[in-house]
Amino acid sequence: MGARLGRECLYVPSCRLGLYLALRHWCEPGGKILMSPVNDDVILFVVLAAGLRPVQAPLSATDGSIDMDAVPDTVWNGLSAVLTTNLYGHPDPARPLRERCDRLGIPLIEDAAHAIGSVTDGKPVGSYGDAAAFSLSKHVGAKAGGFLAFADPALRAPLERARDALLDPARLTAELAYAVRPYAESAVRGLRLAPAAWWVLRLLGLQERDAIRMPLRPAELRQALDSAPSPTAFHSWVRVDMHDYRIAPGRLRLRRLGHLLGRLDERLTAHRAGTERLLSTRWAPRIQAGATVQPLFRVPLLVADRDAAVAALARHRVTTGYLYDPPLDTYAGETFTDPSPAPARAAWFARHALPVDPLRAGPVIDILTSAGTGTAREPHGD
Do the beta carbons of residue 247 and residue 174 sit within 8 Å? Predict the structure, then answer.
């Protein structure tokens, strides 16, 4: 990945820990950071854990990217950093954001969890920011691991020390569970035991969401803010969906990660082909003529009734994940974040975006067509 990005790359157990590491290194606690309101709630808690105040950005209703032109100067002038999302792999405007951050003298941090193969302005996503955090759970399919990319080789040693100070020791039980998980999941799929599997996960405390967003628990969150910056105080929020996000890897895990990463080009080719197919449907978001087709992690089809589309897919055993509704300013409220100055487009996108795995493009298109799924009409203005 260092050769692909032209940058130093440091292994981390998860993208969320990589983001925390970057925010603590490049951002002073107490500052404000611009971020997308259509994002995993875990990232909101990572930002709060780093001692920063989230500021929700206005978004494009077409693809959920940050709309720089809709950010008022008063907001820009109060920022101490910018965090991109590259939602589902579609790049945020990295070059203009880099230029704006340079003029303001603040760092640009890229969350590239969904965008390991995406390119913008001729350069890979992750090569614009002061740092970029990537996930190996998404395109690579490793269900663990990530890495932090950064430009200055001299920072490797201090970042390694900071990472190691955050890690929990490797555990044999965690390594064994990781080793058998692919076989268990394959058996569950083959036996069509998905509902039973979800029940077992809830019983073990590993399935903590009853809805798209996890419970906010505002009283506990206010107490945690008094301890920020602190990963420990926010652990119960940041660990959701990935309890081993801080565990040092063992040899079994690293060997599997290396094997899967070696197949990355093959996976990106398949994602790009599926993306191209989905972008040819009537539900596809608008893209610029001649724009490069990215190997998206998920393709956000814009449907009139998202919940009905999710239900139609579920009837055919197609699970829809990576939904981010409502936007984070609605979810967290002004107590924990500065709301977007133009929230309507983010709310519309969050309500209508149906994230589709491009590797399942064919079956999904057939199901949505048979269900008579309608196309969402984009809003005009805020």
Answer: yes
Has residue 281 been placed in a domain?
Answer: yes
DSSP β-bridge partners for residue 148: 10, 133
Enclosing domain of residue 314: 276-370
Specify the DSSP class assigned to residue 320.
-
- Considering the domain boundaries, does residue 181 fall inside one? no
Q: Which residue has the tokens 């967290």?
A: 332
Q: What is the pTM of this model?
A: 0.92
- 260 in any annotated domain: no
For the chain, first and last CA: distance in Å?
40
What the block records as the tokens of 311 is 């239900």
pLDDT for residue 173:
61
| Residue that is written with structure tokens 């972008």 in the block | 279
- Binning the chain into helix, strand and coil, the percentages to the nearest 5 are 45, 15, 45
Alpha carbon distances (Å) from 49 to 19, 30, 69, 226: 11, 11, 29, 10
Within 10 angstroms of residue 292's Cβ, the number of other Cβ atoms is 12
pLDDT tens digits, one per residue of 206-221: 557 778 999 999 999 9
Domains in the chain: how many in total?
A: 1
pLDDT at residue 170, as a whole number: 67
Is 356 inside a domain boundary? Answer: yes
pLDDT digits over 165-179, tens only?
Answer: 999 876 656 655 555
299 dihedral zone (left: phi>0; alpha: psi -120 to 50; beta) = beta
**Residue range 245-258: average pLDDT?**
89
pLDDT in tens, 61-92: 989 999 999 999 999 999 999 999 999 999 99
Among residues 233, 5, 224, 22, the alpha carbon closest in space to that of 123 is found at: 5
Residues forming a β-bridge with 159: none
- 180-189: which pairs have CB atoms within 8 A and are 24 or more residues apart? 181/143, 182/143
The pair of three-digit structure tokens given for residue 71, joined into one six-digit string:
């950010």
pLDDT for res 191: 45
- Whether residue 360 has pLDDT greater than 50: yes
CB atoms near residue 184 (< 10 Å): 11
State mean pLDDT over 291-304. Answer: 95
Concatenate the DSSP letters of all residues of 254-310 into one string. Answer: HHHHHHHHTTHHHHHHHHHHHHHHHTTSTTPPP--TTPPPP--SSEEEEBS-HHHHH
Closest-CA residue to 308 (of 228, 373, 224, 213): 373
Each residue's pLDDT tens digit, 259-269: 999 999 999 99
